[in-house]
Records
---
Amino acid sequence: MKKINEDTGHPNDLPVIFEYDQQGNIIGKISINDWKAKKEEAEKLNEIEIKLYRESIHYYTNKDFDKAEDILLFLINQTDYTHYEYVERLANLYRRQANTSKEKELLLKARRNMGGLAVNEGIIHRIDKRLEKNANATAKGKMSLATD
């Protein structure tokens, strides 16, 4: 019987994954093992994000708005204002506190960061509607102050 020799082979024979930039040019290559490690790390970060978001909702429902705001601001900064669920939850918190200036600032930053992608057209439309409501609420607040 012939013994099967498991040769490790030449390093060039290892499968690789090519990384591409926005224009489709190859910017590098990584091994399968490196890719799996990066994927596991990304999944762990995603799990942490979910746990933090759940914690912020817990604080929000218990009316501990300062802690909820801190967690949501952290999550929003981590995702560069592109995860609309976080932005919307924080905007709701600001609206509950009648802090229209912070709500408007938050929505404008989110709109600016999502503006370049065509995929986000629906979200941009929602942000625009919310900004319009914010402007109307601010105008009503100014009118009521003028009549007092």
---
Amino acid sequence: MRKQLVAWTILTSAIVAIAVWSVLGPPDHVAGPHLPSRDLTASVR
């Protein structure tokens, strides 16, 4: 029962990840703790 639950959870999360990937496309930037706007203002200064 527990293995079935783990397998179902992994399968569901994989399907959700594929759906999000197909809708949004691959990420263009690496997510980090800083905002892109902050980098923009730093480069202007």
---
Amino acid sequence: MGETLPKYDVFQAIADPTRRKLLHLLGDGELPVTVISVQFPMSRTAVSKHLRVLAEAGLVKDRKVGRETRYRLEAEPLRELQQWLAYFERYWDNKLAALKQYVEEENN
């Protein structure tokens, strides 16, 4: 049988500010869910649901250590996002170049 597609893609996963904060926290290293959950004004169950979305998008991996579940960032799927944003950088670069030119002309 064929490979099943993830339930969530990277874009859906990072759309939520809580999940973006989770990724930021995990960027510093692996953390247990108990430590992660105290960083948010929501229940541990709610944090776990956000972590599940990130895991289904391939952005985090979990592992059991005794009775504890630890999560770590998997940054590779973010490359898709980086490539998508890179396309639009030329528009930002053009706007910044035009602004620079305008400011320099005003100062002369």
---
Amino acid sequence: MSTIAALAEPLYHGYSGTDGVTGFPNIGTYLIFGVVLVPIYIMVVSWFAGTPRDTKTGMLGVSYLVAITAQMWIGMFILTIIIGFVFYGGLPEPLGSPGPTGDIPIFGFLF
């Protein structure tokens, strides 16, 4: 076994990509957005439909929710790219092809 292959062994576990499964609409997505976030939906609607009504404060709350959500999604997207490159040997499916790229996926770019 070469030195490069020995260095790649602890990181790369040999699993292939999830062809056609990776992406946004899965059962977990429907569960989170359809069930878990119902209290958040009720809270946002009550900011605008309830009494006393304060549109400025409601828009500030919506802005905070959008900013926090965007921060989490963008951060997890960047982390997913890093994990895909290091442990799976290539970029995740939306940016690259599914599955590992090459015989030695982690250090394959050196050859």
